[in-house]
Design goal:
Elements lengths: L6 H8 L2 H22 L1 H4 L4 E5 L5 E3 H15 L4 E6 L6 E2 L6 E9 L10 E9 L9 H4 L8 E7 L3 E6 L4 E6 L6 E5 L10 E3 L10 H11 L10 E2 L5 H11 L2 E4 L12 H14 L3 E3 L19 E4 L1 H12 L1
Parallel strand pairs: 3-5, 11-12, 11-13
Antiparallel strand pairs: 1-2, 3-4, 5-6, 6-7, 7-8, 8-9, 9-10, 13-15, 14-15
Length: 322
């Protein structure tokens, strides 16, 4: 499709009406979140709520607001059946007759809010398995191979929706004058090679040996392979993965000594980002298996992740296994 197409037109031509309704509800919710983020300092919604979420992490006011907004907007779509969020302990039934199950990280990278750095919303959509009535956990425990649509909204220098319905990846920029999403990045393809590595290098003493060696490889001088690579790390998965998708690179949140499953959540961070990345020609693994092949067994489970340009992910694997 040509640049400038509206999100609604694009969906009408590429996916079914029931799924489109869910995606358009998320898009409407994201516009409110984007506006809140832009005005956060004036509206007195910076800072923390004083509560911790189910994972024991500090909840920012905007984490909480974004979660409520997305839930409300999804409820307005009668095809949405169930909702899982980083900010809710359990699952929520939105419509007993709904068809789709939505898992979200309402605000990713929220420790960056006060610093005015890019943050995002991540979503994954699958079809429900259960009959009409309340949804159950099993509806959410589907591998990424069953994902029907996934993507993220990045609230950065622009607000952009990057989405896949399993047929390539497209980016839509939010027009701040008429509040519509317009196709600005058609058919995004990521480079097979990259010169950026993104990880929290401050944790290096907690890394396993193979990871330490990969970091040494990235920072070593070698003219032929254009090393050293550049280290870029925002601390917002959406920001880091999006930059690498556009420019080529690898984002890693590894398992650390003592944190065998890493930090990032499988259902609403890693699976959707992996689906987008694979659809753009990249690769995403837990250091061993494809992220999309991992069978979820807990709502808020974590996994290590290696995601981005294919050759860089393969290179990291050589060090992990060598
Ligand atoms: P969230 O704000 O949704 O809790 O996610 C934060 C995540 C992710 O976005 C980022 O890549 C990672 O935490 C950063 O973690 P470190 O501060 O440990 O590097
Ligand atoms: Mn997150
Ligand atoms: Mn979050």
């Amino acid at each position: 499709m040509k640049k400038g197409a509206t999100l609604a037109d694009f969906l009408e031509n590429t996916t079914n009406l029931d799924l489109s309704k869910v995606i358009l509800s998320l898009a409407e919710g994201s516009k409110i979140i984007s506006n809140l983020i832009s005005n956060a300092g004036i509206a007195d919604i910076l800072g923390v709520t004083g509560e911790t979420n189910v994972q024991g992490e500090t909840v920012q006011k905007l984490d909480d607001l974004s979660n409520k907004i997305l839930m409300d907007y999804l409820r307005a779509s009668e095809t949405a059946a169930g909702y899982l969020s980083e900010e809710n302990e359990g699952i929520v039934t939105l419509h007993e007759n709904g068809k789709y199950i939505i898992s979200v990280d309402p605000l990713d990278g929220s420790s960056n809010i006060d610093a005015c750095a890019p943050i995002g919303t991540i979503f994954n959509i699958v079809e429900r398995l259960s009959p009409a009535g309340s949804v159950n956990d099993a509806d959410f425990f589907q591998t990424g191979n069953h994902t029907k649509a996934a993507g993220y909204f990045i609230y950065g220098s622009s607000t952009i929706l990057v989405i896949t319905t399993g047929n390539g990846v497209n980016g839509f920029t939010l027009n701040t004058e008429n509040h519509g999403y317009y196709l600005s990045h058609p058919d995004i393809k990521t480079s097979e090679n990259g010169k950026i590595y993104s990880l929290n290098q401050g944790n290096i003493e907690k890394y396993e040996e193979g990871m330490k060696k990969f970091v040494s490889y990235c920072s070593a001088i070698d003219k032929e392979t254009s090393r050293p690579y550049s280290l870029r790390y925002i601390g917002s998965m959406v920001g880091d993965v999006h930059r690498n998708l556009i420019k080529g690179g690898i984002f890693i949140y590894p398992a650390n000594k003592g944190e065998k499953k890493g930090k990032l959540r499988l259902l609403y961070e890693c699976i959707p980002m992996a689906f987008v990345t694979e659809q753009a020609g990249g690769k995403a693994t837990d250091g061993n298996q494809r992220i999309l092949d991992l069978q979820p067994v807990e709502l808020h489970e974590r996994t290590a992740i290696f995601i981005g340009s294919k050759n860089l992910v393969d290179k990291a694997h050589e060090f992990l296994n060598g």
